[in-house]
Write a structure and sequence with these properties.
By secondary structure, the protein is α/β, with parallel strands linked by helices. The protein folds into 2 domains: 196 residues, Rossmann fold, CATH 3.40.50; 63 residues, Helicase, Ruva Protein, domain 3, CATH 1.10.8. The strands form 2 sheets. A 7-stranded mixed β-sheet has the order 4-3-2-5-6-9-7. The protein has a two-stranded antiparallel sheet with strand order 1-8. Helix 5 links the parallel strand 5 and strand 6. The longest helix is centred in the last third of the chain and has 12 residues. It is elongated.
């Protein structure tokens, strides 16, 4: 069973833990959303599941009960010891999830899923690391602050449209999402969160690392005309982008945030 608010407070008191804002320690205390996470992840016996930030173990216990193979990453040393001592079948490390995005799981030869309650400060950085792994998770159920969720799934011609919007939507489709009020966490954050269910596309598209970096550089000047930006960047990618846009009759006075995702995909293919 997922931990309630009272149970969470009691456990933190026993462990002598004071939630750290710098680590984004806002613990989910709404059992209904724990159940929804399991349902959306379509958890089955023998699944390989990576859990980022197990915290008090409210989701971990359910994953163990379902007889899954859990790989977890927990930065807090006290909570790390709590999870390791409570569930000895969990393969957990005490590390930063940005440096170990899937823990000790070798993401190259096994289908796996990810469930995570991501601290706002690392959410986008961590996700970008995931998208560069040799084998991507088949499903991800992620709890993130609503601002991040809106940015990740924004479309062209939006102020929120960004490189990560392009990279994520090229790889995953959004299956479900719901708002999770701040009162569902302890301590309460200042803003609401969103629970996302992502499924890897049957025909997904990934961008090479250097191409991704170029696109990020272009978006640094998102409000400038893309032709002018490319002339300033003066790189092989910039020259290729100008040629690509001209060949496809796309006005060089447009801005990066106005180009649809499929245009960026075709440009990336041209660069390979």
């Amino acid at each position: 069973m997922a931990l309630t608010l009272l149970q969470t407070k009691d456990l933190l008191k026993q462990l002598a833990i004071h939630p750290k804002r710098k680590w984004g320690q806002n613990f989910l205390v709404a059992p209904a959303f724990v159940e929804r996470s399991l349902k959306w992840a379509q958890i089955k016996s023998d699944d390989v599941v990576v859990e980022v930030g197990p915290g008090c173990g409210t989701l971990t216990g359910n994953l163990v009960q379902e007889k899954t193979h859990v790989f977890a990453i927990e930065k807090d040393p006290v909570l790390f010891e709590h999870v390791r001592n409570t569930w000895n079948t969990v393969c957990i490390i005490c590390e930063d999830a940005v440096q170990y995005p899937v823990g000790l799981h070798k993401a190259d030869d096994t289908n796996y899923k990810i469930v995570a309650n991501l601290p706002y400060a690392i959410a986008s950085i961590w996700l970008d690391r995931i998208l560069e792994l040799p084998q991507l998770p088949t499903r991800m159920v992620l709890m993130v602050q609503t601002e991040a969720a809106d940015r990740w799934f924004s479309r062209e011609n939006s102020k929120k449209f960004c490189p990560l919007s392009i990279f994520l939507q090229s790889t995953y489709q959004l299956e479900h999402k719901c708002t999770v009020a701040k009162r569902c966490f302890y301590p309460q954050p200042k803003v609401d969160s969103t629970l996302l269910s992502l499924v890897k596309r049957p025909q997904y598209f990934t961008f090479e690392h250097t191409c991704k970096q170029f696109i990020r550089n272009v978006f640094v000047h998102r409000r400038q005309q893309i032709g002018r930006v490319c002339k300033e960047l003066q790189s092989p990618y910039a020259r290729t982008l100008i040629s690509f846009l001209q060949e496809n009759a796309i006005d060089l006075s447009c801005r990066a945030e106005c180009l649809p995702i499929d245009v960026w995909q075709r440009f990336a293919l041209r660069c390979r």
